[in-house]
Design brief:
The structure holds 2 protein chains of 2 kinds.
Chain A (H helix, E strand, L loop, with lengths): L1 H23 L1 H4 L11 H24 L3
Helix pairs in contact in A: 1-3
Chain B lengths: L3 H20 L11 H5 L7 H12 L2 H14 L6 H26 L4 H9 L2 H34 L5 H23 L1 H30 L2 H6 L3 H8 L6 H15 L3 H8 L4 H9 L2 H16 L4 H10 L5 H9 L2 H38 L5 H25 L2 H15 L3 H9 L5 H26 L3 E4 L2 E4 H22 L10 H5 L1
Antiparallel strand pairs in B: 1-2
The chains are: A mainly alpha, B mainly alpha.
């Protein structure tokens, strides 16, 4: 049972770490093209990751929640 | 300026806001003579209310005014607000549920309550409390700066803007202080839902209507000169260290602010707090869109002219609203931003009052009763609001802005005691105190010598421009660690008054 809990925590930790890796890799998104509706990649990519962060954090919260 | 229908809509909605605030006292009724009932809404908020309250608390009028005006004035660097509002909630998920559990088990109302027991140090606790209050005051003042921008746009063109807007602010603050006094955090939670709904209406309407009627970002970029295009289209290479250190430092600091901790502790249970927190980056999408209004304004010549003629970057969003929306809709949206200042101001004042009463005054005057401490907190929260108001009226706005930058730097120095304390009692309280002092002194020094004259919170280092909060926090951690190693070498161990079960339960 203890191993189960630890596995959940490890997965939750990885999910929460992903946005850190994405946002710290600034050169990967510091560019203009491809644009979205005229908006440079720099802006829409980071905004899109807010939506993805919400999903990742929600799964992490679900894994960490005590039932 | 805003037409008659707009003004009427604004006033009617403000009355609804005030009624909701007073109704809070009767909602999920509790004994409002107790500090956790008044100041934490009885710890009864579920997932959705936590989301709304924290959304109202963290995405404030100042954010909605300052981020777009920063983006408008300085370019893409100000988009650091977006990674910041993703990462800060990961940090919150790692810290706030633990703090919630131990606070429920031990009856804590503030982070300083926790620090006091964890490290067995009243002095460290009082320093954490005072740091929180000092960092919070300019934040409240800035909400007023944001609200003033709304009023200035509404009243543009009439003779005596300054007087009318000051009277309006005083009336708004008297009403706010009155319902905070009677309803406490319950009033803030109810009005927070109201505010969030209005803000979402604003964001969605503008981002749909402006591109349809005026052309979208392609049009905005085509209206710019080449030089402007360069600062907006992406991040300049030398600003990369500033960008990541700003979003990292801000993300670390947010949940050390008393209002963020206060909001988290008002949750009804640990799981609901986690779900509410995990969903908060959604609100950041609204912030990202509003930030982009700083670029979108180039597509709307009338709005751009207002900002240029008044030389006031704070008017980016209010000007866009008034020039692109019918009067009645503009009234709804401007009120959304206006109460977007009042709700967080109320929560910030409540949280500061809790800290002052619990961790400073009660340490000196130990015979304070439960009712006595609550009454005192109610009065202090009212007084704090009017100090902030007087501050904005009496000194230039740039002072409040600079003090808020400094506030972010100093609040970060409570991280080792609060966040690391949630995971370990390894640190020695005196080493943490020395680390805190090192962080504060180095942070203030770097800010005063470099940041203040340039209205910035970064500092030049061999690694490029870095956010001062991150640099001084690094010094703080080094001193805290070395100090603890020495203390432990000499045989001093921390006597924590919190058991492992009380942190997990």
């Amino acid at each position: 049972m203890t191993n189960m809990v630890n596995l959940r925590q490890v997965i939750a930790g990885i999910l929460m770490a992903i946005p850190f890796i994405i946002y710290f890799d600034i050169p990967s998104y510091n560019k203009v093209y491809p644009t979205l509706g005229g908006l440079p990649y720099f802006y829409w990519y980071q905004t899109l990751w807010l939506a993805i962060s919400t999903i990742l954090f929600s799964i992490a919260a679900f894994l960490l929640a005590k039932r | 300026m805003l037409g008659l229908y707009g003004i009427i809509t604004f006033v009617v909605l403000f009355i609804i806001f005030a009624v909701l605030g007073f109704y809070g006292a009767y909602w999920r009724r509790g004994n409002l003579d107790l500090l956790h009932e008044w100041g934490l809404a009885g710890r009864k908020l579920g997932t959705i209310l936590v989301w709304f309250l924290m959304g109202a608390d963290l995405y404030t009028a100042y954010t909605f005014i300052a981020v777009p005006s920063g983006l408008f004035a300085k370019g893409s660097l100000y988009f650091f607000a977006v990674p910041y509002v993703s990462l800060t909630f990961a940090i919150a998920l790692l810290t706030m549920p633990r703090l919630w559990v131990v606070s429920r088990n031990k009856g804590y109302v503030t982070a300083a309550d926790f620090v006091k027991d964890r490290f067995n140090s009243k002095i460290l606790a009082a320093l954490v409390a005072l740091t929180g209050v000092v960092a919070e005051l300019p934040y409240i003042a800035l909400q007023i700066v944001g609200m003033k921008a709304v009023l200035e746009m509404m009243l543009l063109g009439i003779g005596n803007i300054a007087l009318v807007s000051e009277i309006s602010l005083i009336i708004a603050f008297i009403i706010l202080a009155a319902f905070t006094f009677t309803s406490g955090l319950r009033g803030a939670a109810l009005t927070g839902v109201f505010k969030d709904i209005l803000i979402w209406i604003t964001v969605i309407s503008i981002i749909t209507i402006v591109p349809l009627q005026y052309g979208g970002f392609s049009h905005a970029f085509s209206e710019m000169a080449t030089k402007q295009m360069a600062i907006y289209s992406k991040l300049a290479e030398p600003l990369i260290p500033a960008y990541w250190s700003l979003f990292l430092g801000s993300a670390l600091a947010l949940y050390l602010y008393p209002h963020a901790i206060n909001g988290s502790l008002s949750a009804d249970d640990k799981n609901k707090l986690m779900y509410g927190t995990a969903l908060l980056p959604i609100y950041g999408i609204g912030l990202a869109i509003i930030a982009l209004f700083g670029i979108l304004i180039y597509a709307v010549p009338n709005a751009l002219n207002i900002v240029k003629l008044t030389h006031n970057g704070a008017l980016v969003v209010p000007a866009l609203i008034v020039t692109t929306m019918p009067d009645w809709a503009a009234g709804i949206m401007l009120l959304g931003i206006f109460v977007g200042g009042l709700v967080p101001a109320a929560i910030m004042a409540i949280a500061s009052a809790n800290l002052l009463v619990r961790n400073v005054i009660k340490e000196i005057k130990t015979d304070l009763t439960f009712k006595g401490e609550t009454d005192l907190a109610k009065w202090i929260s009212a007084i704090i609001k009017f100090i902030a108001l007087a501050f904005v009226f009496l000194v230039p706005e740039t002072y409040a802005i600079n003090l808020q930058l400094l506030g972010g730097i100093i609040i970060a120095q409570t991280l080792p005691a609060v966040f690391l304390g949630l995971y370990t009692d390894w640190f020695n309280p005196w080493a943490l105190t020395a680390g805190w002092a090192t962080g504060i002194i180095s942070g203030v020094y770097m800010f005063v010598t470099f940041g203040l004259p340039r209205a910035t919170s970064v500092y030049p280092t061999p690694f490029g421009l870095l956010y001062v909060a991150v640099i001084s926090l690094a010094f703080n951690l080094i001193v805290s660690t070395i100090g603890t190693l020495i203390a432990r070498g000499l045989g001093y161990k921390t006597k924590s008054n919190i058991s492992a079960e009380e942190l997990k339960g």
